Amino acid sequence: MRDERRDEGELVKYLEDLMNQAGIFEEEVKLVVFCPSSKDVEPLFNLVRKRITSYKLIAKYGERVPREDFRRMVKSLAWLLSVDKSEDDLKFAECLGDLDDAFNHLDKKRRHYLARVKEDEDWIHIRRWEGESDEHHILKLLVYKTIKDLGYKDEDIKVEEACRREADKVVAYPVPDLHVRGKIWAEVETLRGVRDPLDLPHEFQGKADEISKYEEFWLVVPSLEIMMHAHRMGRLLEHLFRLFKGRVKVSLWYPDLVGKRARKLAEIGPSS
After folding, report:
1. pLDDT tens digit string along 143-196?
2. CB 255 within 8 A of CB 222
3. Do the beta carbons of residue 262 and residue 249 sit within 8 Å?
4. CATH 3.40.1350 occupies which residues in the chain?
């Protein structure tokens, strides 16, 4: 791992603090939802229970949480809601002094930023396949805008490109969610129905030879799923790195609704 490991370590600490405040440890449960206090445990639970089987957890301090713990918990909640890049919203939530109020504020801001994303001008470039979830579709847009930020033009960034013309012939090939030919291969994985993320490399087995021709492989995963599999993510990147014959820089990304971008969390690559 490179410098991004420090960011990953800080994130894991925040998430561990969050879980410890709830009075549980990782090995005791598979899926975790943090509910801010004993006053009202429903808002966050309702946010995810339609997507996954969830546990309700109540902070052991109730509504009297030490200031530093409260700050960490607010930052963790903001990260789970993909709004942690707004310093103003974080500071406001911290000043509220109540976890229910802080969550309600951050969730309201999440809906606000999501509405902005849905109005983005780059949607015209994002091809959608039948049955694709809204979440998967939105993550593709964030990846598209992130790649565009690197200086690539719209015509360079291919979305769900199933075939291309080579030497006056139409050639079909393994379909990435997004790619810049020979440069970046990006895959969005919501991890719905995936019990163990270490099974994920099997999905890319048939694409490995093609991916090995690229400089970078981006794996984009929702924050909630990264949290629940936090101690598996490093090994997942290592497995993918080996699958791609050690030739490709492999990185893990999470969504940022505030900046309308994907953000890199961790990376592993060939020695320079």
Report:
1. 999 999 999 999 999 998 765 555 565 555 678 999 999 999 999 999 877 778
2. yes
3. no
4. 122-268
Q: Can you say whether the dihedral through the CA atoms of 170, 174, 177, 179 is positive or negative? A: negative
Q: Any residues with CB less than 8 A from the CB of 197 and at least 6 apart, and which? A: 191, 225, 229, 232, 233, 236
DSSP string, 132-189: --HHHHHHHHHHHHHHHHTT--GGGEEES--EEEETTEEEE----SEEETTTEEEEE-
Which DSSP state fits 195?
S
Output DSSP code: residue 249. E
SS3 of residue 16 by DSSP? helix
pLDDT at 14 over 80: no
The residues that bridge with 33 in the sheet, in sequence order, are 56
Question: 122-268 — its CATH code?
Answer: 3.40.1350
CA distance 184 to 161: 13
Read off the pLDDT band of 2 (50, 70, 90): very low
CB atoms within 10 A of CB 238: 15
225 — pLDDT class (breaks 50, 70, 90): confident
User: pTM of this prediction?
Assistant: 0.75
pLDDT score recorded for residue 267: 93
222, 216 contact by CB (below 8 A): no
CA distance 172 to 167: 13
Structure confidence at residue 228 (pLDDT)? 81
